[in-house]
Design brief:
The protein is mainly beta. It has a domain at 11-107: Cytochrome c-like domain (Cytochrome Bc1 Complex, Chain D, domain 2, Orthogonal Bundle), CATH 1.10.760. Helix content is 13%, strand content 38%. It is built from seven helices and 35 strands. Helix 3 (64-81) packs antiparallel against helix 4 (98-107). The radius of gyration is 22 Å and the shape is globular. The structure holds heme D. Heme D binds next to helix 2, strand 5, strand 9, strand 15 and strand 19.
Length: 531
């Protein structure tokens, strides 16, 4: 029955509509057309934080038991104005109209509906090899410095722009599909791997002239993460896609994206041992110590180590982390995975060599480091840090247990960030003396259009902030291969990427003509996990 819906971009929305929600007593009634609109808006704007089944994660539980108590007017206010805890101001921020907010307020008082599951056979039907391996070039077809290419996500255009980092020229725009969330590279760096919000993965060959998509597959109806096998001997052999719905991960072939295995992530919460029907796969990194991927299983709070050395016998080790695991990245040595459990204001540290959790660090409200940043503090030695969605705070902890055991996994600095809450990302580079921070979700327009820079050798001097643009939101930083330029996105329909000289903080270039640019990923830094 689901067959005709499974591989379309609107699978999720259609699927939810096929099951008539049972109205809770007192829940406002919606027409079929209203239900269709609301389901679509919920998928695009709300499901990421609150969950498809609305049990809550980065955002609170929105099941009728709770929402009916708040009522339509109260819910409209929250949706319109946002909250200091990080809920965006959807109406005053211009994302939704007042009548859409009212529609959503009514919708979430009705019972949530589970979209369908997906089998390997169904996933296989969406799999396309556009350029077979035998027809791909064996060496770059161009003279460009491809390891300094940037893949820039044009979120709402469903494209990835490939930009030459040396010349700042947009070489091509690849149709990647709906709302790509992140890019990662294969271990060799040759391929960009993209994952769309709708679960469609793509593989872009940077050696082709111009770079082009060579394979694609849709492994779920909602996803946020992808990575490649990077361990010695397994380079470019496999990739993994982490799904939000259905809650599972899929192992695919590293050259063709052929789907090979699916593993469900459903199970029990690590602390209260309650069954959770929707434990979503959040961040994934690829271990440098063994043939394993490290997966954040958001709702159950486990970090899974997935051994891919024999995929007919996939071994999963479940390390107790914290709820609700979201984003994270490596320390400078690539041994420790540092991950945010943002609803518990905690960073969880996993030692991928010893394969165990070594610490939980209490930080500020809703930590959101992205992949984080690692640098050397003048007083405390090698450190790592996170910014926060819920407050203007930079938390810095020691991350060198060997050289500086006293500071290891302890917060050594808590630096107040004057612009306030709403930071999403931070970035530095081993060759840089700067730490860059964004304030993309700050409710003040000027702040959300600014970046701030802290001199890492003078943390007491505080941060210097400057406005990048007079439109959009400024989000996500990435260094070039040499580590002397920082690229920043101005996120709106007339978007641009602004390039700064990291030493002087002077603007070097403005790359225009990009629609809703969000994340950007330098080939060299992504393949070597440099941040
Ligand atoms: Fe992201 C990373 C999930 C909202 C841009 N985002 C991630 C990761 C996850 C995630 C799990 C880590 C992937 C990894 O490392 O393997 N993001 C979610 C959500 O669930 C959430 C909160 C809500 C949603 O509905 O998607 C969300 N994210 C956003 C945005 O609103 C952003 C700013 C724009 C967008 O695309 O929607 C956004 N997320 C990004 C970017 C990264 C990311 C640019 C990669 C950062 C990096 O440097 O690796």
């Amino acid at each position: 029955m689901w067959n005709k819906y499974r591989v379309t971009a609107t699978t999720f929305v259609l699927a939810m509509l096929l099951v008539v929600p049972q109205a809770f007593a007192g829940a406002p009634k919606l027409s079929d057309a209203e239900m269709k609109d609301a389901t679509k808006i919920y998928f695009q704007r709300c499901a990421g934080c609150h969950g498809t089944l609305r049990k809550g994660a980065t955002g609170p539980n929105l099941q009728p038991k709770k929402t009916l108590d708040i009522g339509t007017d109260g819910l409209v206010d929250i949706i319109s104005e946002g909250t200091p805890g990080g809920m965006p101001n959807f109406v005053t921020g211009g994302t939704l109209t007042k009548s859409q907010a009212t529609l959503m307020a009514k919708f979430i008082q009705n019972k949530p509906v589970a979209p369908p599951e997906m089998s390997l056979a169904e996933i296989k039907e969406s799999w396309k090899v556009i350029v077979p391996v035998s027809k791909r070039p064996t060496k770059p077809q161009h003279k460009r410095n491809w390891q300094n290419f940037f893949g820039v996500v044009e979120r709402d255009a469903g494209r990835v722009a490939i930009i030459d980092g040396d010349t700042k020229e947009i070489i091509t725009k690849v149709n990647s599909g709906y709302a790509v969330h992140i890019l990662r590279t294969s271990a060799s760096g040759r391929y960009f791997l993209s994952i769309g919000r709708d679960g469609k993965a793509g593989m872009i060959d940077t050696w082709m002239s111009p770079p082009a998509i060579v394979a694609e597959v849709k492994t779920c109806s909602e996803a946020r993460s992808i990575d490649a096998s990077k361990y010695k001997g397994y380079e470019d052999k496999y990739a993994i896609i982490g799904c939000y719905w259905p809650p599972h991960f899929v192992v695919v072939d590293g050259a063709t994206l052929e789907p090979l295995k699916i593993v469900s992530t459903r199970g029990y919460t690590y602390d209260t041992f309650e069954y959770h029907p929707e434990p979503r796969v959040a961040a994934i990194v690829s271990s440098h110590y063994s043939p394993e991927w490290v997966l954040n299983i958001k709702e159950t709070g486990y970090v899974w180590l997935v051994d891919y050395s024999n995929i007919d016998n996939i071994k999963v080790s479940m390390i107790e982390g914290e709820r609700f695991l979201h984003d994270g990245g490596w320390d400078a040595t690539h041994r420790y995975f540092q991950s945010a459990a943002n609803m518990r204001d905690t960073m969880v540290i996993i030692d991928t060599k010893e394969r165990k959790r070594v610490a939980k660090i209490a930080v500020g409200t809703k930590p959101h480091p992205g992949r984080g940043a690692n640098w050397v503090d003048p007083k405390f030695g090698p450190v790592s840090g996170t910014v926060h969605i819920g407050e203007g705070l930079l938390s810095v902890w020691g991350s060198d247990p060997k050289g500086h055991p006293k500071n290891a996994w302890k917060v050594v600095r808590s630096i107040e960030l004057e612009p306030g809450a709403g930071s999403l990302f931070m970035k530095t580079h081993p060759k840089s003396k700067n730490l860059w921070l964004d304030f993309a979700l700050n409710t003040d327009k000027k702040n959300s259009r600014s970046v701030c820079v802290m001199k890492i050798d003078k943390p007491e001097a505080g941060i210097k902030c400057f406005q990048v643009a007079d439109h959009g939101r400024v989000v996500h930083m990435e260094y070039n291969k040499a580590g002397d330029e920082v690229w920043v996105s101005v996120w709106d329909n007339e978007g641009e990427v602004v390039v700064y000289d990291d030493k002087t903080l002077k603007e070097k270039a403005r790359i225009k003509g990009l629609r809703t640019p969000t994340g950007k990923f330098n080939v060299y830094n992504t393949m070597h996990d440099i941040y």
